[in-house]
Amino acid sequence: MKTDKILLDHGSGGKISHRLLKDMMLPIFDNPILAELNDGAIFDLRGMRFAFSTDSYTVDPIFFPGGNIGDLAINGTVNDIAMCGATPIYLSVGLIIEEGFPITDLGKILNEMGKAAQKAGVTVITGDTKVVPKGAVDKIFINTSGIGLIPQDINVASHHARLGDKIILSGTMADHGITIVTQREGLSFETPLSSDTAPLNHMVKEMFSASNDIHVLRDPTRGGVGTALNEIAEQSEVGIKIYEENIPLTSAVAAACELLGFDPLYLANEGKLLAFVTYEQSEVVLAAMRANPYGNAATIIGEVVDEYPGKVFMQTRIGGRRIVDMLAGEQLPRIC
Amino acid sequence: MTLKHIEEYRDSEIAEKLIKKIINTSKRNIRLMEVCGTHTVSIFRSGIRSVLPETISLLSGPGCPVCVTDQAEVDAFIELCRMDDVIVATFGDLMRVPGTKSSLQKESAGGRDIRVVYSTFDALEIAKKNPDKNVAFLGVGFETTAPTIAASILSAAQTNVKNFSVISAHKLVPPALEALMAAEKINIGGFILPGHVSVIIGVKGYQAFFDRHQIPCVISGFEPADILHAISVLVEQIETAKPVLENAYPRAVTFDGNTKAQQILNDVFEPADVCWRGIGVIPQSGLKIRERYAAHDAENLFDLQVPDAQTPKGCACGEILTGTKTPPECALYRKVCTPEDPVGPCMVSTEGTCAAFYKYHTA
After folding, report:
1. Number of Cβ pairs closer than 8 Å across A and B?
2. Considering only the top CATH level, what class is B68-172+257-301?
3. Which ipTM value was assigned to this complex?
4. Residue A186 above 90 pLDDT?
5. Which of A131, B148, B154, B344 fits a disulfide with B315 by CB distance 3.0 to 4.6 angstroms?
6. Between 3.30.565.10, 3.40.30.10, 3.40.50.300, 3.90.650.10, what CATH number should domain A166-324 receive?
């Protein structure tokens, strides 16, 4: 059964989103820079290397524990640029606001955006505001774009993973995704859940100060760690082995996922990164990450292997082995 | 929920001991069946199949509520959401299940008002907030979910929420076990019985079945160590030819089960002969809403005309649900039928055997 309409699944970041991208967008905008499919575009101009990225934010609810749509929009684009190995410099902000939206809420969001930009060390240099009739958008949508400079000798890309690379995850996973789901559904837990939204550019800089032997950087946002690793395995044509025991997860997130039937491997993160680092330099880079507050729970979760090229597999706690597939569509809550 | 507790059951040392015990005890080739989608997922996610000796085959039975929902029932759900002034409330799993011509997800994209809820009481709230609409909840699931759905009907009746109804497609586990035993070619050596269902029906819920068939049965929890323990007990029972109905999940399951839930369930529902996808009609294996709650029975309230339901050609869901085929033995698996574009429900639900195979199985 094919569909003639856009489904929510098309925006999930999983396989169905990929198909939309590959079938409908890439053929039209076909060019070598886009074809790389990194978090941002990487290109040379007048002897310098730039990273350029854009992202739209439609999160519901707009205010959530740990952040709001405003700081999320700044951090998200800052991180996409940082994942290209670049130092983010300038950002644009586009606001689409629903008629009737409270001015005080807008003030709060803008205020948080200002603070987030300051924290990340980026400047918002252009923007646009549109107001649409009630119901044409849900409260407020934000687009941010950003540009950054890539220092010499830094060369990261999704297709650069190499055999033997160690895979570092900068902290616990699924915090943002599960926070949003539980907020949306009005569920509360004994241990409060909180989004991990954070700018990662300073940590990335410190990682490169420790070593340039970083092959891939990726922030596992929509689609989670599972989808990000699958994309890297596919683009680098390597096998990826991860160890269930090593993957950091807070007990609150684990409990909420258990209850709702979600696999934390596929839930969004907004302040975490995956780094593929040579075996020799992995400890140095890990130490640099742990020295940063956003990376203090960084852990080596796996490695690049020669088995199952293009696939991700997991050694489970009980010593079993299974495939970690890419997410197909939106994760739906289970029945029992 | 105390997580330390869960972590204990995932402890690799405990698991290692159990695996060794299973390997040492298992001599004969045996086929064990789990009859619960949550077990299926846990088995795949923890890679249990990959640590078991070749003598043991694990089969996934009809334990995923979405998977056993008959095509005609899915078509009725779709028909229901197309009615004027109706809001359909459903658990998320059902959204993608293909009916004969459409799915709830597609109907939702086409503008029908379909709300995904986590609890039937959320559906009741929607009814209270939308007095000018009829809110119909799609009641799918086993003994686990049926009591809360019964409670929402009771609550609607008591608080006079006239615009709330349920379409009941509930199924019962023990009659399905009977049907499996009656089927040919199945050759099951023992059952891993569903933990959640057992919390409600208790050990006694299986007593009659066990007494009749004298087949090894173990009620199991959901952590990898729980399941490994259940397998180890089953292997021992089979090797010593001493079948027992054993409760290996005593931290949650009692002999009598949850009697209050049973009362509510019996007050609202009565057993009925219903059709299971791929299996056919099983006597007294479903739950229909009793006459006294007819005002909240969607099938009674709406004239649901469902033309002949057609299960997709080539789909082996039925054989897969009864353990006579594995997903790779279905001609459509991976070629035509994928989680993005599912043909049968076993590929849709996260708890479906095909979806679990597709997602987790190391080829």
Report:
1. 137
2. alpha beta
3. 0.74
4. no
5. B344
6. 3.90.650.10
